[in-house]
Amino acid sequence: MTLRAALPLLAGLLITLAGCRKTEPYQTPAAPAPEAYKEAPPESFKEARDSQGSKSTQDSKDWKASAPADSIARGKWWEIFHDPVLNALEESVTVSNQTLKSAEARFRQARALIRESRSARLPTVNAGGSIMRDRLSQNSGVPAPATETEYGDFNLGVDAEYEVDLWARVRNLIAASVESAQATAADLENVRLSLHAELALDYFDLRSLDRERRILDSAVEAYSQALALTRRRFEGGVANQVDVAEAETQLEATRAQQIDITELRAQYEHAIAALTGQTAESFSLAENTTPLTPPVIPVGVPSDLLERRPDIAAAERRVAAANSQVGLTKAAFFPTVMLGVTAGVEGSSIANWFNWPSRLWALGPSAVQTLFDAGRRRAVTEGAVANYDATVADYRQSVLSAFQQVEDHIASLRVLEDESRRQRLAVGAARRSESLSLNRYKGGLVNYLEVATAQTVTLQNERIQAGVERRQMEASVLLIKTLGGGWDKASLPTPELLTAR
Question: Helices 169-235 and 241-275 meet at what angle, rounded to 10?
Answer without folding.
Answer: 160
